[in-house]
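Let's sit down with a protein and look at its sequence and fold side by side. We need material for that, and I hope you will provide a protein of your own picking. Once you have written the record down, we can walk along the chain together.

***
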Amino acid sequence: MTMSTTSSAPLALPAGPTPAPRRQVLVGTVLAAAAGSMLIFGELAMWMKMRDRAHDNGVAWMPKGSSISMVTANTMLLAFIPACLFAQWAIYSAKRADRTHLLQGIGLTGLMGVAIVNAQAFLYSQAGVAAKGTAYNSLFYAVTGTFVVLTIVGIGFSLVTLFRVLGSRNGAAELVTAHALYWYFLAAAYCAVWFVVYVTK
């Protein structure tokens, strides 16, 4: 009498679905941009309120001897066009795994940020606005100083993204997208600052 033995393979459940990406960096960037927008627009609202109050009282809003160079202000505005294009170029390159152009796009975005901060520093040196004095003086440096800090954060974001891409094999597409989103926020914020502080004064 012969007994046949059958080899039985261990039973296993099928693999579950791949969890959806959490996108913590992208969500965090959106929240940071929202907070920055509230800060900038809150300061601009205070600027317009104090300006209207000065006009109602018949007081000059801008101190005598102060001169805002619109050439410098317009140059900063125009600088955000290539900055946003470079940031979008980085996204385009990340989707196509084009590492060389990806690094170039991120690096040029940060470089444009350095140029913008340098232009703002030059405007400070030429404006002749004292740090102390009227409400204009205080709000001028509060609004533009806040924007400079946000731009420096953007430059730091570009550096972090650049080093992250250098050390990553997959291109860090989510971080590159978040990086571009932050620069879009900076461009929109500066458009508001440019119009309220530099154009309408």
